[in-house]
């Protein structure tokens, strides 16, 4: 094999690492991603809470790998891998042959088999997710400002975070900061600091996370688990709780599911 062709699917942390390790080696490398940019996911929550702009946490993959002369970057989506024929099939139907294949397609959030929750509960894995979450969060404050019914105002200013991992906890903390500091002087009909974040931790909360969340005045439904979504009044129903009051702003930070490329 004179110059092996390595195909890397995905320009996330894994794909970029592969590209960097293989640069200036005797390989021809093709890195393909369905987006033209790499996203630094650990800071997505800051875009979702309007603390950072999308451009602050994303960079073109082509630019990142510009000095790797043997690496070619393609904007393309892999839909199927034919292991026997050593080919990656793209969404436009064209195949790319490889000698070696690196799959770094990441993960997506999961709704535990309830994909219908996706309409109501925003996940946080991509820039698009972060911008949609940001839109919903900021609109909730705007709607509350125009609302005269205190119960409905309270409902609008209650944010539910499903998942008590780092993302859920960081979101709770930043939401508290926004509500108590950033937006404090900007509204006239609402006290933004009265906003509540509820974190439905489906798994065990560590002591550290618990104290952090308590500090943000978030309430935690520890190990409540989620059983269903009550469509009639837009409420989440926990498996160990009879009911949870209506809450419109639900954000999914729970668990992960591997991104599937079929073989
Ligand atoms: C909100 C959030 C906060 C996080 N915070 C931390 C943290 O603080 N510390 C930490 O260590 N980790 C953190 N993580 C986890 C970390 O970001 C991930 O573990 C890491 O990004 C995984 O890298 P990856 O390359 O496997 O996947 P990704 O970074 O997800 O990259 C996958 C790439 O593959 C592309 N792709 C997917 N499917 C296809 C396809 N079919 N065809 C072509 N391209 C495709 C995607 O467009 C993407 O660019 C966080 C994650 C999130 C979502």
Account of the 3D structure:
The protein is α/β, with parallel strands linked by helices and 263 residues long. It folds into two domains: 5-43 and 54-105, FAD/NAD(P)-binding domain (3-Layer(bba) Sandwich); 115-257, FAD/NAD(P)-binding domain (3-Layer(bba) Sandwich). Helix content is 27%, strand content 27%. It has helices at residues 13-22, 44-48, 61-64, 127-146, 150-156, 166-182, 207-215, and strands at 5-9, 28-33, 37-39, 58-60, 71-75, 78-82, 87-90, 95-97, 100-103, 107-108, 121-123, 158-162, 196-200, 219-220, 226-230, 235-238, 249-252, 257-258. Strands 11-17-12-13-14 form a five-stranded parallel sheet. Strands 5-2-1-9 form a four-stranded parallel sheet, covered by helices on one side. Strand 1, helix 1 (13-22) and strand 2 form a beta-alpha-beta unit. The protein starts with a strand and ends in a 5-residue tail after the last strand. Mean pLDDT is 80; it is low at 201-231, 233-247 and 258-263. It binds flavin-adenine dinucleotide. Flavin-adenine dinucleotide (FAD) is lined by residues 9-15, 32-35, 41-42, 44-45, 77-78, 104-106, 124-125, 166-167, 259, 261.
């Amino acid at each position: 094999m004179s110059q092996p062709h390595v195909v890397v699917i995905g320009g996330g942390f894994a794909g970029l690492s592969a590209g960097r390790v293989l640069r200036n080696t005797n390989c021809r490398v093709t890195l393909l991603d369905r987006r033209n940019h790499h996203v630094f996911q650990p800071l997505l929550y800051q875009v979702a809470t309007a603390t950072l702009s999308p451009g602050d946490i994303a960079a073109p993959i082509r630019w990142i790998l510009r000095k790797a002369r043997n690496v070619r970057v393609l904007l393309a989506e892999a839909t199927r891998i034919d292991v026997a024929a050593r080919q990656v099939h793209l969404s436009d139907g064209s195949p790319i042959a490889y000698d070696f294949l690196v799959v770094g397609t990441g993960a997506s959030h999961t709704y535990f088999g309830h994909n219908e929750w996706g309409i109501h509960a925003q996940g946080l894995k991509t820039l698009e997710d972060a911008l949609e979450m940001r839109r919903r969060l900021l609109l909730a404050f705007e709607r509350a400002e125009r609302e005269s019914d205190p119960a409905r105002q309270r409902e609008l200013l209650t944010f539910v975070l499903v998942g008590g991992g780092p993302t859920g906890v960081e979101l709770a903390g930043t939401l508290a900061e926004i509500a108590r500091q950033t937006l404090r002087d900007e509204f006239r009909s609402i006290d933004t600091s009265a906003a509540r974040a509820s974190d439905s931790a489906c798994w065990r909360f560590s002591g550290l996370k618990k104290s952090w969340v308590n500090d943000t005045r978030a309430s935690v439904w520890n190990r409540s688990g989620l059983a269903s979504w009550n469509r009639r009044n837009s409420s989440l129903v926990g498996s160990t709780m009879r009911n949870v009051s209506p809450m419109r702003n639900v954000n999914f930070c729970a668990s992960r599911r591997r991104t599937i490329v079929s073989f």
